[in-house]
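Input:
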Amino acid sequence: MRRRSLLKGLGITALGASASSFPLPGLIRRAHAADTVKIGCLFSSSGTMANIEGRLNYVAQMAAEEINAAGGVLGKTVEVVVTDPGSDWPLYAQLGRQLIAQDEVASLFGCWTSVSRKSVLPVVEQNNALLYYPLHFEGEENSENVVYLNSPPSSSVLPAVEYLMSEEGGAAKRFFMLGSDYVWPRTINQQLKGYWTDKGFDPSAWREEYVPVGHSNFQTLVNEIRSFADQPGGQPIVVLTVVGNSIPDFFREFVNQGIAAFDVPVLGLDAVEADFEGLDTTELVGHLNCWAYLQNAPGPRNQEFLANWAAYVGANDVPFRPDVAIDPMVSTYDGVHLWAMAAEKAGSFDVPAVREASAGLSFACPSGYEIAMTMENTYVKRGVFIGSLNEAQGYDILWQSEGTPEPVPFSPYMNS
Amino acid sequence: MARRFAAILSLLCLLVPGGAAALDRAAILTEICSGDFRAQQTALESLAGAGAEAGREGALWARAVVQGFEGRDLRCGADAAFIDRSDGLVSAETLEPASPGGDLSAPSVNLRLRATAASAGFVLALFTEESAEARLRAAGRLDRRREAVSAAVLTAALETETDPAVAQAIGDIRTSLLLRDADPARRAEAIAAIAADATLRNRTTIAEALANEPDPAVQAAGKAALAEIDRTLAIGNALATLYSGASYASVLVLAALGLAIIFGLMGVINLAQGELIMVGAYATWFTQEAIRIVLPAALDWYLFIAIPVSFAAAALVGIAIEATVIRRLYDRPLMTLLATWAISLLLINAVRVGIGTQNLEFHQPGYVSGGFPVVGDFIMTSNRLFAIAIAAAAFFAVLALIRFTTLGMNMRAVTQNRAMAGAAGVDTRQTDRLAFGLGSGLAGLAGLALSPLYNVNPTMGTGFIVDSFMVVVLGGVGSLAGAVVAAFGIGQINVAIEPVYGAVAAKVIVLLLVILFIQRRPEGLFAPKGRR
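Output:
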C-alpha cells in the first residue's frame, strides 16, 4: 500500500523529481578535457529500485577504471557521468536527453525495468545514441540504438520453465503468475500463456495476478496462492515477476504462511542475491531464479571479477556489499567492455561506427561463457543459469546451458 | 547395477514383516553419489525406511545422511562418501572422523530430491527425536506429505512410540493411507481421519477419492465430510479476511497515530513523518546490533528492549525539528509543508550517505516469524500479530495520556483555544514541543513494529505519508478514535476488494471511496467538538 499515491502522484513526485535531481553529479558541469571520453549511467540511487539498481553505477565505474588502467580507449580516459533518475520512469528519458545533449556522452548504460527502457527508447532513437541495457527482459523490441546485453525470454525464462516442467524439476502442471503491473511482467506472462497453450495446457491450469509497483502487503495474494496450490490438478509453481522491494516483502509473507519451496516453488524472474540481503533464507531454500550469471558461476574469470569488485568496494567506500555480485552488475560490466572494444575496433566514438564494429565482438564474461554480439542485430548471446536459493542468501547452480543459445527477439508464443 | 538391485531388495525387505536385515550403507551412499536422479530418489526412499528396518541406530545414521544431503554437507569421493561437519569430515558410512584422499564433490540437490529428503527426514524424526513434542511436529509435517510414507513404516514407528498423543497422530496418518483400501469400512475410516483436519488440501484428497468410490455408504459419509469441511473452510476464510484487514489497519494506525497528534491536534502538516518512522526502524536495528555485542543471550528480546529506544530516538529528532524549524512557522502552514518536505529529503539522504541504501537485516525471533494455523486454512502470522498488538497498546496508551495526564489536558486546551490556554497559565511553547515529541516518538514506535513486516531502508517512510494523511483526514482531524475507525474501514474494504478485482483496482476503488466520502462529509468521520 505504499503507492496509493494520488497526492504523491500529483504534487509530491513533481517536487521529488526536482528535489532528487538536485544533488546529481550529472548537473555539475565539469571542465571539458580533450583527452577524456564520457559515458553516462542511468541507474536509480533512490526510490524502490535503489537497492539493486544503485550498484550498477559503481560497477560501470569499476569497468571504466579497468579500461583506463589498460590505457583507455583510443588514447582517451573514460569518464563515467552518474545520474539519479529516482525510480521515476519519465525522469530516465529526461536525464538521458540531458546526458546526450549537455554532457555529450559517447554511450549510455542504463535502465533496469522495461518501463524505464521504453521511456528512454525514443530519446536514443531521435538522437541516434546508443543505450546498453543490462537486464534480461521481455523481448519484442529490436532497436538499433539499444544493445541488449541480456537475454530475451527464449534464452532465459522459457528454459527455466521447461526445466520446472520436467520430471527432475518437479513436473509442474499448474502456474500462478504474480507480477508488478507494467510491461515486462505482462509481456512475459503473455508469452508464457502462449507457450503453455502450445504445450497443450488448458487455461484453467494458470492464474494471473498483478500488484502495483512498490506493493508490500502480500497477505491476501499469498492466501490465494495457498488455496490455488491446494486445488487438484498437479504440482503448482509460482512465476514471480514483481520487482524491487516487493520481492523480499513477498518472500517474507510466503515463509510466514508456512509454504516450503518443495510444496510450491517460486521462480523469481527478477530475484537476485541482493534482494535477500535483509532476509533469513533458511526457510526459503530451494526457490529458483534464472539469469545469465550467478555469483557461484565456476571459473577463474568469475573469481577475478568478484575479487575486483570486493577491492573496488573497499577502496571507494561503496555503500553496497563487497561479497554480493548480481547478473545485471556483470552485464553492465560486460557492456562497458564491449563498448570499449567496439570503439577501439571502429577507431571512433561515433555511434554508427561503434554499432558497425560491434557485430561479432566477443568477450570473456565472468559467467564463464564467451559471450558474443550477434551479427544481425544488437543482441548478445549469453549462457543460461537456473539457480536454487541457499541458506547463505546466495543461489546454487541447479542447471546451466551447454553453450550460449541464439537470442530470439520476437517470441513465436506472443500471439498464440 | 548390482548395488541398485541391492537397494531395491532392501526396499522390498521393508514390506516383509520382521525383515530386520541390516542396511547396506555402502550401497545406499553409492546411489546417492551416483548423480543419477532416479537412483538418488530410490536411495533416499530406502533411507526413509531405515527406522523400520534397522531400528533406532539405523534411523540415526539414515537421518545424519539425509540431513547431510539436504544441507549440501555430503561429500562424494571416488569410493567413499563423507559428511562435512563444523569440526571436520566424518565418514558417511560410520559417522567416525575420517580424512579422505582425492577430490570431493557435493551431489546436487534439485527440488524433487529436496522434497523426498525432507519427507525422509520427517519419517526418521519419528524414530530418532528424543522429545515427544518434536516427534509430534514431525508427524504434523508428515500429515501434509502422506504420499511419501508407507503404512509399514508407520506401524514400525507405532511399535516404539511411547507418547499417547504422538501415537494418536501417527495412527491417524496410517488410517488416512487406507483411502484406496479394498474394505469400504476402512475407506470410510480414512475419510473421517482426513476430514478431522479441515483444509482445502484434505478436501481435494477426499473429493478425488470420492470421484471413483463405488460404495454408497462411503459416498454418503464422504459427502457429509466434505460439507463439514466446507463449513469450516468458510469460517477460516472469513477470519483470514478479517485478520488481513485488521493487520493492514494496524499498519495504518501505527503510521497515522503520530500524525493524528501532530497534524490532528497541532495542525502542523509534517511531511517528515514517514522519515521519523524510518528513524525508529533504524534505532531498532542499532539496538539489535548493540545487544548482539553486549548481551547476546537477550537477542531474542531486542524488539522489546528497543521500544523505549526507538520512541526516544524519533522523539528527540522530532523535538529537534520542532525547536529549530517548525516553531518559527506555526502561523504559516504552507511554509511548514515545504520545510518538513525538505527535512524529509535531508533525513533520507543523510541515512543513505551514512549507512547505505541496502535493506537492513533483522534477527527474527520466534514471536515474529512463522504463523500458526487457527481454523481451516487460516494461518495467523506472528509478525502481523506483533504489529497489531503494538498498535493497540500504543493507541490505548496515547488515549490514556491525553485523557488523564496534565500534559494531555494541556494539549487539549491548547488545541481548543491556544490564546485562552495561554491566558490560563498553560505553557503553550512547552506543550507544543512535548506534543510534537510525542507524535514523533509514536512514529518511531511504528518503525519498530513495522520492521518485521517491511524492508527497512532509507526510503521506507515515503510510502506511509500519503496513507497516514488519508487516515487522519478521513477519521476527522483531531480525533484519535476517528483515525482508528478510518484505518479499520480502509483496511477491511481493501482486503475485501483485492481478491475480486485485484490489488491495483483495490487501491483505485478505495481512493475513490475516500474522495466521495470526504466530499459528502469534509469534517471526516468524527468531527472535533472544540473551536479551531
